[in-house]
Amino acid sequence: MNADVLALLEARFPIPAMDYYRRIALWDAWWRGHDRTFHEFTENTVAGHSVRRQLYRMNMAKKVAEDWAALLLNDRTSVDVADPAGAAFVSRVFAETDFLRQANRLVERAFAVGTGAAILRLTGKADADGRLIASPDKMPGISFEFLDARHIVPLSVENGEITEAAFVSEAIRRGEEVVYLEIHTRAADGYVIRNEFYRFREGRIRREKNPAGCPGEIRTGSPRPLFSILTPNIVSSAEGACGLGMSVYADALDCLKGVDLAFNNFCRDIKLGGKKVFLNQTLVSRDEWGNILTPDDVAQQLFVTVGDADIAEHPMIAEHNPELRSSENAEAVQCQLNYLSFRCGLGAHHYTFADTEARARLTATQYMGERQDMRQNMAKHQKNVERFLRGAVRALLWCAARVIGLPVDEACDIRIRFDDAYFTDTESQRERDLRELAAGVLTAEEYRCKWIGVTGEIGGIAEAGVTGDAAETGEKGGGGDA
Length: 482
Known about the structure:
The structure is a single chain. Helices cover 37% and strands 24% of the residues. With 482 residues, it is an alpha+beta fold. Among the domains are: 3-253, no CATH class; 275-321, no CATH class. β18 and β19 (461-463) form a beta hairpin. α7 (253-271) runs antiparallel to α9.
């Protein structure tokens, strides 16, 4: 958010977390790979002039966030809704809004800057009471907006959870910057959404008329918020969070610096490590325009020396071959990567480039044992991702039942399935299941559903065949969220 938007928000709402937004800006700078206070430095040239230079860098902050997003929410993650009508509605909206792909990108941003949000947006006509007019024949416009911590302003926080918030979206329309302010607050009859638009003109921010189909106020009547918040499942070590989360590498910034310092030293040694050849001045000639010519320029091989100098003792040509120190530099980079991956919860050997032959000989048990730290942290983070996905689905089911009027059970069970293939020894599991099938513990239908992907029905929840690599979590007993 720029200064004008922040001033607008400060005038409208108390924002006790302004210092926290500076931390968010720092985490965002590292995700983008460039922290000016660290990656830029001044160097003096041979002529004595000062030159601004930049460190070589690996941009590992983005890689860490990308890896967590790939582990937690990928193409093998599924959301199963027990109610058939609700499942069809959710599946259709997810497909139309590209929800899961956008949610995966949001996980990366949330783990980078600490917080992300998916906001369900409804557009259409509203009656005099601010309620949307819709029917099964004429549905309102349904979409999701995905915003990170830079665009989220908590207004109320209960038990560490954001219950009321303002969301700021910035866009360029016809060459002018437009700010959309969406305020979600609670009233006695449910959540109320206020929509406000602003445009920057002549250096000032001015209120604009809402576009068609976007009422100034929507009284949803929903006891649940139409937004879902995602944060890494770690406690913020900084004061003033006000419900906002903490970056997964917030306490590993020194490790990120260590990686870039080691990588910078490696790259500079390579850059400065080329062969240096020194020629005696007597071997250099000039052409008719005064340009210097070396023997290689004219392919000269015969030289005549004049004087008593001993060529063996004072060679006419000398070379210098700097040491690249590749082994030492590689070890330094590897050590820093180990510290970083350990500190970010990925385990001490997530980024390993050394001893590849030795690591290739690891048994499956050793390989899984090395990843216990990651597996434990992944299970912890999955709880927050599950809560986030369930919140989005609950909002959709409420919209289908209460706004559109579809025959949907908004309190039905929801099951979230996560991909566990990274930790699973698939062959061992398959052999075990074959033994259980032969012993009659596992039925043929269950085996086919697990390993072949045949559509089945388990526990009353309609599922599209999910392989046995998936870890699943479910919600039981009515509509209460876990």
